[in-house]
Amino acid sequence: MKIVLAYSGGLDTSVAIKWLKETYKAEVIAFCADLGQGEDLNAVKKKALKTGASEAYVEDLREEFVKDYVFPMLRANAVYEGTYLLGTSIARPLIAKKQIDIAKREKADAVSHGATGKGNDQVRFELTYYALKPNIKVIAPWREWPFNSRQSLIKYASKHGIPVPVTKAKPYSTDRNLFHISYEGGILEDPWVEPPKDMYTMITPSEKAPNKATYIEISYEEGNPVALNGKGLSPAKLLWRLNEIAGKNGIGRIDIVENRYVGIKSRGVYETPGGTVLHIAHRAIESLTLDREVLHLRDSLIQKYAELIYYGYWFSPERIMLQKMIDEIQENVTGVVRLKLYKGNCHIVGRKSPKSLYNPELATFEAEKVYNQKDAEGFIKLNALRLKLQRK
């Protein structure tokens, strides 16, 4: 039997290699996706092989991740439950897709992941597996093995000489990519307890951020950011640079309790510096370039679109249908946004566009000749008809 495991080098998947080999008498192929997590992935590959994998693939997916997954999501302004920018959610379909590609290439019998039976990631991985290879066998160790906690995994890893980054002194888990980093579990499971002061990775605490504001300009073409301060950059490089600038200014950290797809409430802390700025900037350029009714209709679909990503339906027909509509709407979302970043705050201070629908002559409170204010009287009376009828 041959199994392709989504491997991160963390606690769960490190233990999974040995457990899968022993339980299924199988050959385990490890796959690690480089999504900009900032780790030495050559070391991760060596660790997988040393832990017992027969083969280990490492693929640089940073540009594909940002261009084909993060940017489409940003074009839709997707935010789950009004706060979560979906940094973990959007990474899973790409990892699972590449995993299936390797399974086909290696003629593997099954795919596996290290997601728990309580979380969202198991759903995201497996819905993608089945969407792309309907007859694939899926093995989810957390739903089968005897371990019932992170601590029991640490004990098993220690017994078998498997090095893991999680310790009893720092028992929360993290997931990082080019878009964000998440912190969950362990000491964060009490929603009343403030996270430790040293729990910052991509962001400088706002009280330690510079005392001088930073001004930046982001250029957009058809809904996608293409340049920073006038310099054209690839999607991944632009996001990486924005992470640096916004992170330095303390922007993009949230502490939330969210509703998992499986029905459990979960507390998480997320840092999304560049993504937070891009959400705000995209809204600003849309405000100039989108028709009111088009904007309002699209906004009414944001919750549904965000749920589809959060729940794992990236490859569903409904998400693809919504994406086509959203992308058509974005054709005129072109221009430049100027932002002021200061101690955790991101303010819009300017926007301009060659596709602008903003007409200064119509908008002005000063004298003009293009708008007859008397016309408003009939407009108001017609709209008041149904309100008047309620009182008869």
How would you portray this structure in words?
- This protein has two domains: 2-61 and 89-171, Rossmann fold, CATH 3.40.50; 176-352, Argininosuccinate synthetase, chain A, domain 2 (Alpha-Beta Complex).
- Helices cover 40% and strands 20% of the residues.
- It has 13 helices and 14 strands.
- The strands form three sheets. The protein has a five-stranded parallel sheet with strand order 3-2-1-4-5, sandwiched between helices. It has a five-stranded antiparallel sheet with strand order 10-9-8-13-14, with helices on one face. It has a four-stranded antiparallel sheet with strand order 6-7-12-11, with no helix packed on it.
- The N and C termini lie far apart (77 Å).
- The mean pLDDT is 95.
Strand order of the largest sheet: 3-2-1-4-5
CATH architectural arrangement of the largest domain: Alpha-Beta Complex
Assign an overall shape: elongated
Structural class: alpha/beta
Average pLDDT confidence is 95
Q: Count the domains.
A: 2
| Beta-strand content bin | 15-25%
**CATH classification, class level of the largest domain:** Alpha Beta
Measured as a percent range, the helix fraction is: 40-55%
Labels describing this entry:
single chain; 392 residues; alpha/beta; Argininosuccinate synthetase, chain A, domain 2; 40% helix
Summarize the structure.
The chain is an alpha/beta fold and 392 residues long. It folds into two domains: 2-61 and 89-171, HUPs (Rossmann fold, 3-Layer(aba) Sandwich); 176-352, Alpha-Beta Complex (Argininosuccinate synthetase, chain A, domain 2).
